[in-house]
TrEMBL record:
This is 2-amino-4-hydroxy-6-hydroxymethyldihydropteridine pyrophosphokinase. GO terms for biological process: folic acid biosynthetic process; tetrahydrofolate biosynthetic process. It comes from the Bacteria. Gene3D superfamilies: 7,8-Dihydro-6-hydroxymethylpterin-pyrophosphokinase HPPK.
Length: 188
């Protein structure tokens, strides 16, 4: 256990689970996380984003929650993986379709595994990002600043959170994205 920390979790999914549409699965997952002891501070609105690459599957539903937790980053990630599994998430394909995706985006001002490790993953060529998966937790999420589908809902729950490496707030990272990256993100 660690002292209580603020954290943000991004939620997403584009496949039904047990005949339940993704937006219901996301809401049910938030309730389950609360039952497991996470203090939900705020919940974003729900957004739809196109599947990538275009036409590869149904659109995604994305949201974010901010929480307070006494769990360490690794213990929190383990909890997120347990909840994903309970909602039918199978980790078979990287960046593939899924019933539920719970990504730990930030945990206070933690930079993991360390500054050099974070920098290496954040600066990794996009083609290599699709091929490689880290063998340890990287925080803040190394592609946070590039992902409108994370930043748009995160702006609802933590607009002033400042990236401990980049020094930018969520609002500033969002404003730096090209308009085309945000054009297809729609409020559900």
């Amino acid at each position: 256990m660690v002292s209580e920390q603020f954290a943000v979790i991004a939620l997403g999914g584009n496949l039904s689970f047990d005949q339940t549409p993704p937006e219901v699965t996301l809401r049910n997952a938030v309730r389950m996380l609360a039952r497991r002891g996470l203090v939900i501070r705020d919940e974003s609105r729900f957004f739809t984003t196109p599947c990538f690459p275009a036409g590869a599957g149904p659109d995604y539903i994305n949201a974010a929650i901010s929480i307070n937790t006494n769990l360490s980053p690794v213990a929190l990630l383990e909890l997120l993986h347990q909840v994903e599994a309970e909602f039918g998430r199978a980790r078979e394909q990287r960046w593939g379709m899924r019933t539920l995706d719970l990504d730990l985006i930030c945990h206070g001002d933690s930079v993991l595994p360390d500054r050099a490790g974070h920098d290496a993953w954040r600066q990794l060529d996009p083609a290599r990002q699709a091929e490689l998966a880290p063998d340890q937790l990287i925080l803040p999420h190394p592609r946070l600043q590039d992902r409108g589908f994370v930043l748009v809902p995160m702006a609802d729950v933590a607009p002033d959170w400042r990236h401990p490496v980049l020094g930018l707030s969520v609002q500033e990272m969002l404003a730096a994205l090209p308009a085309g990256d945000l054009a297809e993100i729609r409020l559900l």
